[in-house]
Amino acid sequence: MLQSIADNIWIADGADVSFHGFPYPTRMVIVRLSNGDLWVWSPIDLNEELRAELASLGPVHHLVSPNRLHHLFLSRWQESFPQAHLWGPASTIDKRPDLAFERGLTDQPPAAWSRDIDQAWFRGSPLLDELAFFHKASGTAIFGDLVQAFGEDYLKAKWKPWQRCLARLSGITALTGARAPLDLRLSFLDRRLARKARAKVLNWQPERVVIAHGQWRRSGGSTFLAQSLSWMG
């Protein structure tokens, strides 16, 4: 189930979830930090196969939500790994008062992972803020909903014709820009903070870009993100 994409970083694809009637694939990222702890980004549905594979990698110590939409499976993970610290931006924490979070994440990484992972905080929209992350050793940038790149095969298999048309018009397919959905882009009324975060991301010069929804990039990450985030002005 886990796929290694470089030393000490893995991805796992989960089942689809429904978002306002649209099927969305899920993907999580696991990083083994320098101290051996596992950092788990956007956890997918937890099953026994995944639990066993994680046990072979190390102890799960950090569970990370990149934005307030990525929270569906946090409860089960926190129950299964009670020793793990739960992290997210303030917007996720506000949405899930039933969960025990650490302090809200900002653009400064906590000391627990700052040696291995950097982060950038995209703000300026009343709908959504998001933390992007960067695994330094592998040159991998990690995005939730601000970069979406649905493949044609997935759309043909899972989305209705009118939904596929909307996806292309919105620019969220791999062939039409790999952007955030149009409504989300338009909601960024103040893009100065978003541009500041984008500058930080591009300064990372990532080689890989892993995204939660769609086709991730194994190479050319900097060029890909410069295009995908160009709507910020």
UniProtKB/TrEMBL annotation:
InterPro entries (alphabetical): DUF4336 (IPR025638), RibonucZ/Hydroxyglut_hydro (IPR036866)
Domain of life: Bacteria
Name this polypeptide is given: DUF4336 domain-containing protein
Gene source species: Bradyrhizobium guangdongense
